Amino acid sequence: MKKILALIMIAVLTLGLAACVATPPASGQTTGTSSGVIKIGIVNNPPSESGYRAANVADFERVFNEANGYKASTFYSLKNDEQLNAAQQFITDGVDYLLISAAATDGWTNVLENAKNAGIKVFLFDRMMNVDESLFEAAVVSDMAAQGRMAVQWLKEQELPEYNVVHIQGAMGSDAQIGRTTPLDDEFAKGTMNCVIQQTATWDEATAKQIVESVINSGEKFNVVYAENDGMAKGAVAALDEAGITHGVDKEVIIIGFDCNKWALRELLAGNWNLDVQCSPFQADKIDEMIKDLEAGKTLPEKIVINDETYFDARTITQEDIDKYGLGD
Amino acid sequence: MQNNVVLSMRNINKSFPGVRALQNVDFTLRKGEIHALMGENGAGKSTLIKVLTGVYPKDSGQIFLNLNSGLKEINVRSPYEAQNLGISTVYQEITLCPNLTVAENMFIGRGNYSLVNWRSMKKKTAEILKKLNIPARATQQLGTCSIAVQQMVAIARAVDMDCKVLIFDEPTSSLDEQEVEKLFSLMRELKSRGVGIIFITHFLDQMYEISDMVTVLRNGELIGEYEVKDLPRVQLISMMMGKDLEDVSTLQKRKISDEKSDVLPIYEAVGLSSTNCPNAFDFKISKGEVNGFTGLLGSGRSESVRAVFAADKITDGRIKINGADVKIKKPKDAMMHGIGYLPEDRKRDGIVEDLSVRENIILALQVMKGFFRPFSRAEAEAFADEYIKLLGIKTASMDTPIKSLSGGNQQKVILARWLLTNPQYLILDEPTRGIDVGTKVEIQKLILKLAEDGVSITFISSEIEEMLRTCSRLIVMRDRKVVGQLKGEDMTQDNIMHMIAGEAVQNG
Amino acid sequence: MGNGLKKFTRSQLVIPLFSLLLLVVFNLIRDVEFFSVSIVTNNQGNRVLSGNLISILNGASAVAIISIGMTLITSSCKGQDISVAAVAAIAGSVFVSVLRSNEITVPVIILAFLFSCLVTVLFSTFNGILVAIFKIQPMIATLILFSAGRSIAYWINGGATPTVSSPLLSSIGGFIPGIPIPSPIIIMVMFLILISLVLRFTNLGLYTQVVGINEETAHLNGINPILIKLIAFMISGICVATAGCITVCRIGLINHETLLLDAEMDVILTVAIGGTALSGGKFNLYGSVIGAYIIQALTVTLYAMKVPSAAVKAYKAIVIIVIVMISSPVVKEFAINLYKKLFKKQVGTNIPMKAS
């Protein structure tokens, strides 16, 4: 008896928690024939996935609301099959536009064909999927490799007498890790830069700190820390601070981070770091613009839209940049 | 004569760190013979069996087995090998799988693993069960059978595997008399088929009832091999204990004669009941009294004393200690009122097997002293040392884990645990079960000694003789109800039997 | 002397200490300077100790502290709490959100720490209730918070990775001005002393083991198994909060997704290496702490050897398999027999020497 009670309790709890994380697709929408209101369904990953995702979700909430003439329903899940079901549900509900950031790249063809047959226009954002280009209107995505190239290009422009790089990688196999590692790997291969250590910290700050500590303890010299996100850069800096190694503008070690968190940009402003490359979670404005164009009867010029992304150099960054581009607070 | 021999063990030696468990022991088993192996705990019976079945490697010596073509030396390296050679063991604790069916248990771990023909397996099992007159169905889950039937299934399994030597290691200690009878008739049946049976037991009566030959061991040495019918009990006991019999016989004469019924009872319960003991009962005991609960297994005698100690959830009842109303809702309450309880199942409820003898001894007193007041190491060692000496606990050191002690010594440790709390009332549920004769006598003597010192004791034993010897009052139970009390002259084996059977007591 | 040695070889500490020794020797052969410690001036202008030895001791402190709580849970409940790392993320998030809503002063830090302790103890007690009262297997019971913990932390953080910075915090996560030893090491030592005192002046150790070995006996000897299990979970809660807060202070940032990521597995491993059976019963706190240092030493060794990122986990797994194998009873028995064979003759010749 106790066991059954316990099981029920677990089930209720798990369901409750699941409900907290994922908002189920709102069915039974008002069959809005009221002109001017555009009905959209958004399928995204849950904001708890990362700070990046949280900013992404907030951006979509900012743009797609009733004040801007949208009636938006959103479904969050990390699981592809749940996302597929939700998308199908949106199609059944008869939305005008379907916006999708897919959890996995495969398995979407059927659903997108259904959408096309129902006359629903599809936009992909943040992540591409393995489908024919005719099945969606446009995709707004980040180019991780471009971000990596930007950072490496900037690094080369510094014209250091030699480059001894401590390379801290993200979780192996993730898009961001592969994109941000490849350009640097190319330089290592060419011999223009020297790899002191290349090690994964799986996006973890504390692990990044330990990796840099071990390099310092080995006595090897280095003058660049290339960390594949801001958190790991912060961890690396903590290790440098403890060892009495200076870092930042015109100091012993150059610090490069990615993602442009507000706090990271503030480090740039203070001159403690050198470079932060943007990975923009802001795709809503771009999609909003394209939907308006379609509604106005225009055609879209391109299928794949790469997010405008930029980087910030500690020597040129301003407070306005931080306010405008920084993630979080 | 020689070709009659099934098994012959010669000059077997085995030592463990610090102990010579077997010294030049010989053992011979003949065809169709029930051969008892007797000795106190630590005499080497278990070790000898474990050497024979390949659990332990022997240090030296030879084992010969009659393999159709006459005696041949064998070297058994594992119980599995022993089984294949035709040496099977039936243990006191069932070693089969209770959640499989009888048929599955009969055939598990035998021969071809990959192909199982369920139908023929069931059919074969049913045949064997019928042939050996075992009241079980092939498809029944083993766990739903009684312990006795489970043992019989284990025996049937061994028989079906064509065993030449069948070892019974304390098979009767958890059986009631009827079940024992059934087991014995099965043993006789096997005997008539020519199986050699080794029978290990602590029950003298049973040994005399069924055995042909007996081999006595003491302290790892062979005392001798005798024909049972030529061996008087007294002599057997003296050989096992290695001392004169006076001890045993004098014990019988000492008896507490006085009945202190007029004085205030030390413990008194009215309408006591617990979740496991639903029928409310009244019970009291006075200072220095030894009384006992008796009845068949399952009559509720253990459940009753568990209720006194609040080991199960108490549902009702009023309790007075020395005349004052008290609340005893959990074991700690009972302990704080000076009650100690030695549980029936030593292994399940008594010992903390991985902890040292020292920790096991101080446990109860430590809990009474309180969570925030641990004994210092020196205090704990002094206590342990005192009681190891007092009770003659045989252990390598007080830091030895209790699980490596023999059953009798484990029991002494639990006794020490409660004696250390200086109880005014001690409940001993089957303190003598599964331990050797010597320790049994010691424990009975201890009970009487404690009673003389003013400790009240409730004593439960399956051996009525033991209870008659020690108790001055017996509470008789049947079907979870108290059916009567006996004291003084009325306390005879006959009267108890009658009462249990529900007949009128004959006043003697 | 001989007796002392015998006692030592039987104790649960042999295997962890032996494994640690192997790692140390391996590193010394690889690089004699590996464990050398030097004094450097850090960017705050303090003179502090630096070197791999310090890195190992420092880096292991969080796992070591959590492993203390895990050892108690393992011993009494015969299972593990796999939600510790997720709950640590909650602790860190609570800590940071209290700090961010106040000006950072010593009393505020203490308050924030106590508050995060309170929260984690509540969560741990929830786990404890499932395990002790509802008798759910610990791994299943704690699976709930294992999967939900980081989402709860996300909710506390409002989805961001908030940062806090103050010299006071860096003296907790880094160095206190004037003291050359990293504060996490000092906190770890203090924690260990505290727990040793608790074990010395209460019966926690005895009761926990009795409950873990034989619950029925515990009950019949006046111990309340439910209470003991709950206490184990509560102590674990405090350990987890401490570890979470230290980790936050190291970097000055709470990232609920990565804080002590996968640490629960390291902690469980630590307990196993430390000589506590994962099926409960007898435990060894100091073994667990040593286990944490073994794992950290291994990690640092792999970094120093520049093992490629993708292979780190495989290397770690191999070494851990070896350690776990040495501690298996089969290998132990083999080693004892081998020792006997090798030294039997010597023992024989020793006796006449003594006589002479």
Describe the protein's architecture and organization.
The complex is a heterotrimer of chains A (329), B (508) and C (356). Chain A is an alpha/beta fold and 329 residues long. Chain A has two domains: 34-142 and 281-298, Response regulator (Rossmann fold); 144-279 and 312-325, Response regulator (Rossmann fold, 3-Layer(aba) Sandwich), CATH 3.40.50. Chain A has helices spanning 2-21, 51-63, 80-93, 109-117, 144-157, 175-190, 205-218, 230-243, 262-269, 284-295, 319-325, and strands at residues 38-44, 70-76, 97-100, 121-126, 138-141, 164-169, 194-200, 224-227, 254-259, 275-278, 304-306, 311-313. In chain A, helix 5 packs parallel to helix 6, helix 7 runs parallel beside helix 8 and helix 9 (262-269) runs antiparallel to helix 11 (319-325). Chain A starts with a helix and ends with a helix. By secondary structure, chain B is an alpha/beta fold. The longest helix of chain B is centred in the middle third of the chain and has 16 residues, at 177-192. Chain B folds into two domains: 2-250, Rossmann fold, CATH 3.40.50.300; 253-501, P-loop containing nucleotide triphosphate hydrolases (Rossmann fold, 3-Layer(aba) Sandwich), CATH 3.40.50.300. A six-stranded mixed β-sheet of chain B has the order 6-7-8-3-9-10, sandwiched between helices. In chain B, strands 16-17-18-13-19-20 form a six-stranded mixed β-sheet, sandwiched between helices. Chain B has a four-stranded antiparallel β-sheet with strand order 2-1-4-5, with helices on one face. In chain B, strand 11 (267-274) and strand 12 form a beta hairpin. Chain C has one domain (11-36, 50-306): Orthogonal Bundle (ABC transporter involved in vitamin B12 uptake, BtuC), CATH 1.10.3470. Chain C contains 16 helices and two strands. Chain C has a two-stranded antiparallel ribbon with strand order 1-2. In chain C, helix 2 runs parallel beside helix 14 and helix 5 (84-100) packs antiparallel against helix 6 (106-132). Chains A and C meet through helix 1, helix 2, strand 7, helix 7 and helix 8 of A and helix 3, helix 7, helix 12 and helix 14 of C.
- Helical content band of chain B: 25-40%
Radius of gyration of chain C: 22 Å
Q: Let me know the average pLDDT of chain C.
A: 89
Separate helix tally of chain C: 16
Broad structural category of chain C: mainly alpha
What radius of gyration of chain B results from the CA coordinates? 24 Å
Query: What is the arithmetic mean of pLDDT of chain B?
Result: 85
Q: Whole-Å distance between the termini of chain B?
A: 52 Å
Largest sheet of chain C: 2 strands, antiparallel
What order do the helices and strands of chain C follow? HHEEHHHHHHHHHHHHHH
* Number of separate strands of chain B: 20
The outline of chain B comes out as globular
Helix/sheet category of chain B = alpha/beta
* CATH fold-level label of the largest domain in chain B: Rossmann fold
What is the third-level CATH name, the topology of chain C? ABC transporter involved in vitamin B12 uptake, BtuC
Classified by CATH, the class of chain C is Mainly Alpha
